[in-house]
């Protein structure tokens, strides 16, 4: 009695795989705004203290993005970018506060003379 080879595999449905996870659509934007706000916040300590207020943008945008990423069950990525953008936004806001306190202190103690900036007409 000869043994027959096994039959070829069937042509049924292919195995179903989930798609590759996508990055959250706002993750890159939040991260970029965090970097910009951090740079402007650092500059704002020395010149215009309100530059770091752009740090509010990544701070406000990150809350909903984090909730959406966590609720996606792994279908969305970018949580690290969103969290890092949020942290940079918080640091920028803190730098803005430091700049404001520093400028107010320098104005109050007379180190910065406001009259020096008056224009004269010739």
List keywords for this structure.
122 residues; mainly alpha; two-stranded parallel ribbon; 3 helices
Describe what this molecule looks like in 3D.
- The chain has 122 residues and is mainly α.
- It has a domain at 45-107.
- Helices cover 53% and strands 3% of the residues.
- It contains three helices and two strands; from the N terminus they run βααβα.
- It has helices at 27-44, 56-71, 79-109, and strands spanning 22-23, 76-77.
- It has a two-stranded parallel ribbon with strand order 1-2.
- Helix 1 runs antiparallel to helix 2, helix 1 (27-44) packs parallel to helix 3 and helix 2 packs antiparallel against helix 3 (79-109).
- The protein is rod-shaped, with a radius of gyration of 28 Å.
What is this structure's SSE topology?
Layout: E1 22-23, H1 27-44, H2 56-71, E2 76-77, H3 79-109
Helix pairs in contact: 1-2, 1-3, 2-3
Outline of the structure:
This protein has a domain of 63 residues. It is 53% helix and 3% strand. The protein has a two-stranded parallel sheet with strand order 1-2.
Strand percentage lies at under 5%
Please provide the count of β strands. 2
Number of helices: 3
Structural class given helices, strands, pairing?
mainly alpha
Q: What is the arithmetic mean of pLDDT?
A: 85
Strand order, sheet with most strands = 1-2
What kind of sheet is the major sheet?
Answer: 2 strands, parallel
Low-confidence stretches: none
Helix amount: 40-55%
N- to C-terminal separation?
Answer: 119 Å
Radius of gyration: 28 Å
Order of helices and strands: EHHEH
Shape: rod-shaped
Oligomer: single chain
């Amino acid at each position: 009695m000869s043994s027959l080879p096994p039959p070829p595999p069937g042509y049924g449905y292919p195995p179903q795989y989930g798609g590759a996870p996508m990055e959250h659509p706002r993750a890159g934007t939040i991260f970029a705004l965090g970097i910009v706000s951090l740079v402007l916040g650092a500059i704002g300590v020395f010149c215009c203290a309100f530059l770091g207020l752009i740090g509010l943008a990544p701070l406000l945008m990150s809350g909903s993005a984090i909730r959406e990423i966590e609720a996606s069950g792994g279908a969305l990525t970018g949580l690290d970018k969103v969290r890092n953008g949020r942290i940079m936004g918080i640091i920028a806001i803190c730098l803005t506060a430091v700049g404001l306190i520093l400028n107010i202190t320098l104005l109050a103690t007379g180190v910065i003379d406001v009259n020096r900036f008056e224009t004269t007409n010739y």
